[in-house]
Specification:
Elements lengths: L6 H13 L15 E4 L3 H13 L3 E7 L6 H5 L2 E6 L10 H11 L3 E3 L9 H9 L3 E2 L4 H8 L1 H10 L7 E2 L6 H11 L3 E9 L2 E6 L2 H19 L4 E5 L5 E9 L5 E3 L3 E7 L2 E7 L6 H17 L4 E9 L5 E7 L6 H8 L3 H9 L16 E8 L1 E2 L5 E2 L2 E2 L2 E3 L3 H11 L11 E6 L6 E2 L6 E9 L2 H14 L1 E3 L7 H8 L2 H5 L6 H5 L11 H22 L11 E7 L9 E7 L12 E6 L8 E9 L6 E6 L10 E10 L2 E6 L2 E8 L1 H7 L14 E2 L4 E6 L6 E2 L4 E7 L2 E6 L4 E6 L6 E2 L4 E5 L2
Parallel strand pairs: 1-2, 1-4, 2-3, 4-5
Antiparallel strand pairs: 6-9, 7-8, 7-9, 10-11, 10-12, 10-14, 12-13, 13-16, 14-15, 16-23, 17-18, 19-22, 20-24, 21-23, 25-26, 25-32, 26-27, 27-28, 28-29, 29-30, 30-31, 31-32, 33-40, 34-36, 34-39, 35-38, 36-37, 38-40
């Protein structure tokens, strides 16, 4: 399981191991457990089941009524319905899951992450039923799950902790007083919290009072425990994690560190291993402290100790997660270990397969969390149907990464593109559960190779739905960000790089030309396809191409000509070379020559082209454009992670277009609209009230997160279109204002 060596051969071996081949410690005679029940859903349930199947273990799925046709149910050998859509009536029902264990004869239970994974009562109940719990003992879950108690135990174990108030905060007034005593800024946190829920930063007493209420309500909704505590907020630290694995024989091993600083609202977005610009000495100090803490609570199974690290490389204990982390794949990649297999073996009483001296770092891994959310609207959750869903092809990503890095021959082998998902085309992203669609992981020879693989994978990841939004655009922008490329990351990365919020990918001059050329090439290929029955090739007709809805100066019409360099009379397809040239009378002319790998008209829905010698140095070696929709006079395209409407018309159509009237304004223009589906939790204003810019108007709850909506301008409330408790659709009016 621990792979020696280095470079391409080692990475290729690791890819085979993690992708499909049996692991090295397969049970020769009978599996460790005959049957494993996974008390979870989505991608983590599928991920656990795949390892169990490789180990020869049968699997059981539990599911809610709307999840009856979910991929994790199809993957399991048996499945049991445990209730309705609400988590509280299904995935959090310990009694029903225990009934499922008994009825199926499961010998072990893996909780995944979230839901009951850190519920000590569940762990106790499973083991009381004579079934193995694939996770830590109840005592460790209780000790580390309570953030107040875990901080005290960590200090006693010799782990460096953050200054703060060691007690439960009673109300908003006490929160303001304690925050002042600790010293602003402070972090107001749920004692039972995790996953970014129940956490708020406060910079003054007013914010402390507001943050206390929001955090308390989120904590109650998410964890059934509304206790809140306060500690000093370490400004712009790095968020570094230490992955542990421990057995019941006294062995505890720490693995390569994870960098988790790219986060928003305390929710991780991009993780990587190892951490850039991070010394081995600091890693070992943190690892040794993490082991001390694990031994102090008699820990077993996989767990993660999270630290904040300041600019002087001083680390502070943040919390310990007594479960498998969402970001565990990056550790698996660089350590060469299947953590789920290790957890199952520990639960069966086996010793760890490795010692601390065996731990090695193999290459570099990056994980991007793919969420159903709208980055252009403050990352608010999104729901809808996956009308198109196609994960990226690994071979194509490797080829593109090697072209970008100018790698030739054997040096380009070994890149891994891994997608951990639990959804499928036609599936539904529901308001009832976490909005994560998938985790996209790449593993390369070094950080730059992993980054280029991630760019190639994001460009080729097809996710589309009429009302569904996702964050591929934001992830793609991060991968190309200069600060991220330099590895100079702190938890302030997103607010620092996007101080006014994310406004979508901003096309460079070269990228704009590439997209225009792609649209013209598509138009030419479609004309050739339509003309294929006539036995003649499409003529090199002129086109007028314009990108709609972009920045100043980028919405101009471009007069273009497309020429088929092959001139063989055949329809345009893979291997064709198309030359797209500007024929504008004014300005500098330009041209692009595209050698098509995919035409964009086939079932893949992807136009992929190698950009040949006439392209500027700023143009990527490979251009990838997703074809989302054929419009009457153009295309809906996704490039660089962002959707664009590109008009491609005959020149005389473009000339007539300037005379078209704009659509009438919406009657709700200027009103506060719900940015997402959810429930209206509260309204803070009344009709006739004068409000100021930034004033709280209402709170909308969606996916257990409470979102405060504020006034975008000064004004007077003229109408309230909804009342607390109402179910809201996206873009439904909530508050109207006088004109």
């Amino acid at each position: 399981q621990v792979l020696g060596g280095h470079g391409a051969k080692c990475l290729a071996a690791l890819r085979r191991m993690l992708a499909s081949q049996p692991l090295t410690r397969m049970a020769a005679a009978r599996p460790l457990f005959k049957k494993l029940l996974v008390a979870n859903r989505g991608e983590i349930a599928c991920r656990v089941m795949r390892t169990a199947h490789r180990m020869g273990i049968e699997t059981v799925a539990v599911y809610s009524e709307p999840d009856s046709r979910a991929p994790h149910v199809a993957l399991a050998g048996q499945s049991v319905c445990v209730g309705s859509a609400a988590s509280a009536d299904s995935y959090l029902r310990i009694d029903r899951i225990l009934d499922a264990i008994a009825s199926t004869g499961a010998e072990a239970v893996h909780p995944g992450y979230g839901f009951l994974s850190e519920n000590a009562a569940f762990s106790e109940a499973v083991e009381a039923a004579g079934v193995a719990f694939v996770g830590p003992a109840a005592f460790a879950i209780n000790a580390m799950g309570d953030k107040i108690e875990s901080k005290r135990l960590a200090a006693e174990a010799g782990v460096t902790t953050i200054p703060g108030f060691e007690g439960v905060i009673a109300d908003a007034d006490e929160a303001a007083r304690v925050a002042s005593e600790v010293g602003f800024p402070v972090m107001i946190k749920a004692s039972a919290g995790g996953g970014g829920k129940g956490m708020r930063i406060a910079w003054d007493e007013a914010e402390a009072r507001q943050a206390f209420g929001l955090s308390q309500r989120e904590a109650a909704a998410s964890f059934g425990d509304d206790r809140i505590f306060i500690e000093r907020y370490v400004e712009k630290p790095r968020h570094i994690e230490i992955q542990l694995i421990a057995d019941t024989h006294g062995n505890v091993v720490y693995l390569p560190e994870r960098e988790c600083s790219v986060q928003r609202r305390n929710q991780k977005v991009v993780e990587e291993a190892p951490a850039p610009h991070f010394s081995e000495a600091t890693w070992r100090r943190m690892g040794e402290e993490a082991v001390q803490l694990a031994k102090a609570v008699g820990y077993r199974s996989a767990g993660t100790v999270e630290f904040l690290v300041d600019a002087r490389d001083q680390h502070y204990f943040l919390e310990m997660n007594t479960r498998l982390q969402v970001e565990h794949p990056v550790t698996e990649c660089v350590a060469g270990i299947d953590l789920v297999e290790e957890m199952i073996r520990v639960a069966a009483g086996e010793k760890l397969s490795i010692a601390q001296a065996d731990v090695r770092r193999i290459g570099w891994a990056i994980e991007s969390r793919v969420y159903a959310e709208d980055p252009l609207r403050g990352f608010l959750p999104s729901i809808g149907t996956l009308s198109a869903y196609r994960p990226p092809d690994e071979a194509a990503c490797n080829k593109a990464a090697d072209l970008a890095m100018r790698v030739e021959g054997e040096g380009g082998e070994g890149g891994l593109v891994r997608v951990d998902d639990g959804c499928a085309e036609g599936g539904e992203i529901s308001v009832h559960y976490d909005p994560m669609i998938a985790k996209l992981i790449t593993h390369g020879r070094d950080r730059e190779h992993a980054r280029q693989l991630m760019i190639a994978a994001l460009d080729r990841y097809v996710i589309h739905g009429s009302a569904l939004r996702h964050n591929l655009n934001f992830l793609r922008t991060i991968m190309g960000n200069d600060t991220f490329i330099a590895g100079k990351i702190t938890t302030g990365f997103i607010p620092d790089q996007f101080p006014d919020g994310y406004r979508g990918h901003q096309l460079s001059a070269s990228e704009r030309i590439d997209l225009i050329a792609a649209a013209a090439a598509l138009e030419h290929a479609a004309a050739g396809q339509a003309n294929s029955g006539s036995g003649t090739a499409a003529a090199a007709a002129p086109y007028s191409v314009r990108i709609e809805g972009v920045g100043e100066g980028e919405g101009d019409d471009h007069s273009l000509a497309v020429m088929d360099e092959d001139c063989d009379g055949l329809p345009v397809g893979p291997g064709s070379e198309l030359r797209v040239a500007s024929t504008d009378d004014a300005g500098e002319g330009w041209s692009r020559t595209l050698r098509l790998v995919q035409s964009g008209l086939g079932p893949s829905g992807i136009l992929e082209a190698e950009m040949l010698g006439d392209a500027s140095d700023a143009t990527p070696a490979t251009l990838v454009v997703q074809v989302q929709e054929r419009l009457p006079l153009g295309w809906r395209l996704c490039a660089f992670g962002t959707s664009f409407t590109v008009l491609a018309r005959p020149p005389h159509y473009a000339a007539l277009g300037v005379h078209m009237k704009p659509p009438p304004p919406s009657p709700f223009a200027g009103s506060l609209l719900s940015p997402m589906p959810g429930t209206l939790h509260s309204v803070a204003v009344e009709v006739g009230e004068r409000v100021a810019l930034g004033q709280e108007l209402c709170v909308v709850e969606a996916m257990k997160m409470q979102n405060v909506l504020v006034a975008e301008r000064d004004g007077v409330v003229s109408e309230l279109y909804a009342t607390p408790g109402d179910t809201l659709a996206a873009d439904q009016p909530i508050v109207g204002f006088e004109k």
